[in-house]
Design goal:
about 400 residues, alpha/beta, Aspartate Aminotransferase, domain 2, Aspartate Aminotransferase, domain 1, 2 domains, 3-stranded antiparallel beta sheet, about 15% strand, binds pyridoxal-5'-phosphate
Length: about 400
């Protein structure tokens, strides 16, 4: 099997599993317990906070472990919105956000918050001036993704933050779930207030994420209970998950420079082969995109049929977000980029990762363009002869 869907998830890396195992077995204490078993778990949890904080260049107390990227994003958006309600009700976001953010904002609209959903250009980038132009005296939060999961586009985040920072009262949340394995995130210089990450995008465990929030940022906790995570997220902590996230994030960050270079080279090789097929077109930004990410549209062909055919040939690719697979609707991201429905349904996403080898890419170069060309030829034949009269029965 050739796995080209690292944007959906990655396997748990061995070192992260090894780091986690003791906390799933003999070191089982509750970090809130005062006795020795609890203290051991607490020490590991503290160390995980320190590791994540060091990587992001923040402080350990600013890190809140969550059950994944989705929960971190929900905590940031809903927590900040409710805590800032006295100052205003407007939230600015973009049309290409992950559903974790878009649906959290939509949920808040039911309670009197107002959403401004900014459009993006053909590549999926939001205009920093449009963000500045949308700000009013009621704006309390700007929530944006650093890189898009479906088309890989990286937002001009420095320019956007530059505009928003002229209004110090407005909080900025960055969904870095997809970007964190590949782009350096330095919260000390970035100028954001909250950053969400998810471990399973960088070979950590599924169901573990983290929200970094600048010291002094006020959020309303979204779970009520104990005083864990400095009252920001009640519930007994998943120590093994936090340890696994920290171990995987640490290794990923250390290896990043070389890995990004390698992935870009392999991705470009696959991209050039695929874009040579007539009627296949790149989606997302040609340069400002994640290094292992390749997304295309096959005109007049069906992305689902292509991925099924690739699956039969042992290649795992997807049509877009794993969270919306199975939905007959065209992707909200491609629609926001301006693709009409019939074109958006021809979307295929291939995302490379640390396990992807040169040999796998060569095999993909053989199989994927051929499959796409075949599917397009089938569509052309259908268009020329819709009743199938030339097909012998
Ligand atoms: C950009 C982005 N945000 C949020 C999420 C949700 O993260 P999780 O799967 O950890 O809940 C994802 C996962 O696909 C993502 O790509």
């Amino acid at each position: 099997m050739i796995y080209l869907d690292h944007a959906a998830t990655t396997p748990l890396r061995r070192e992260a599993l090894d780091a986690m195992l003791p906390f799933l077995t003999e070191i089982f204490g509750n970090p809130s317990s005062a006795h020795a078993a609890g203290r051991k778990a607490k020490a590991a949890l503290d160390e995980a906070h320190e590791t994540v904080a060091r990587i992001l260049n923040g402080a350990p107390r600013e890190v809140v472990f969550t059950s994944g990227g989705t929960e971190a994003i929900n905590l940031a958006i809903k927590g900040a919105a409710w805590a800032s309600k006295a100052h205003g009700n407007q939230i600015i976001t973009t049309a290409v956000e992950h559903h974790a953010a878009l649906h959290a904002v939509q949920h808040l609209e039911r309670f009197g918050f107002e959403a401004v959903v900014l459009p993006v250009d053909r590549y999926g980038r939001v205009d920093p001036d449009a963000v500045a132009g949308a700000i009013t005296d009621r704006t309390i939060l700007v929530t944006l993704m650093l890189a898009n999961n479906e088309v890989g586009t990286i937002q001009p985040i420095a320019e956007i933050i530059d505009r928003v920072r002229q209004h110090p009262r407005i909080l900025v949340h960055l969904d870095a779930v997809q970007a964190a394995p590949y782009l350096p995130i330095d919260v000390a210089t970035l100028g954001v207030d909250m950053v969400s990450i998810g471990a399973h995008k960088f070979e950590g465990p599924k169901g573990t994420g983290a929200l970094w929030m600048r010291h002094g940022t006020t959020i309303l906790p979204q779970t009520q209970g104990g005083s864990q995570e400095r009252y920001r997220r009640a519930g007994t902590e998943d120590v093994a998950g936090a340890v696994g996230l920290a171990a995987a994030f640490d290794l990923c960050t250390r290896e990043r420079t070389a890995e990004v270079r390698r992935l870009r080279r392999l991705r470009d090789r696959l991209r050039d082969a695929i874009l040579a097929v007539p009627g296949v077109e790149l989606t997302g930004h040609p340069r400002e995109r994640l290094p292992g990410h390749l997304s295309v549209i096959c005109r007049d062909a069906d992305g689902v049929s292509i991925t099924l055919a690739l699956d039969l040939d042992g290649i795992c690719a997807s049509t877009g977000s794993a969270c919306t697979t199975g939905s007959p609707e065209p992707s909200h991201v491609l629609t926001a980029l301006g693709y009409p429905e019939e074109e958006a349904l021809g979307a295929v996403r291939m995302s490379l990762g640390r396990q992807t080898t040169e040999a796998e890419v060569e095999r993909a170069v053989e199989v994927i363009p051929r499959t796409m060309a075949r599917m397009r030829a089938g569509a052309d034949a259908m268009a020329a002869d819709p009743l199938g009269q030339q097909v012998p029965v």
